[in-house]
Design the sequence.
């Protein structure tokens, strides 16, 4: 699961464009999961919503779309 300070690399499956950012907040959601809020280095992915972030379990489970980099190592 992503943690605060992890680098996230989001790959758009249709264009193969990569977006890079850092997790700055994890918020518990009432339906039992966490929302991960990411500070993007430049462009924001079209699927990212500033108000809702990404579901943290999706970041972990959708390995073809997301990479989690922690302490310089890809953990996904």
Sequence:
């Amino acid at each position: 699961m992503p943690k605060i300070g992890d680098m996230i690399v989001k790959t758009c499956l249709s264009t193969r464009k990569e977006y890079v950012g850092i997790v700055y907040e994890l918020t518990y959601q009432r339906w039992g999961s966490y929302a991960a809020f990411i500070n993007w280095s430049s462009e924001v992915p079209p699927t990212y919503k500033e108000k809702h972030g990404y579901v943290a379990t999706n970041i972990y489970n959708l390995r073809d779309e997301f990479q989690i980099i922690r302490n310089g190592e890809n953990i996904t």
Remarks:
- Residues 7-74 form one domain.
- The CA atoms of residues 51 and 76 lie 25 Å apart.
- The chain is about 10% helix and 40% strand.
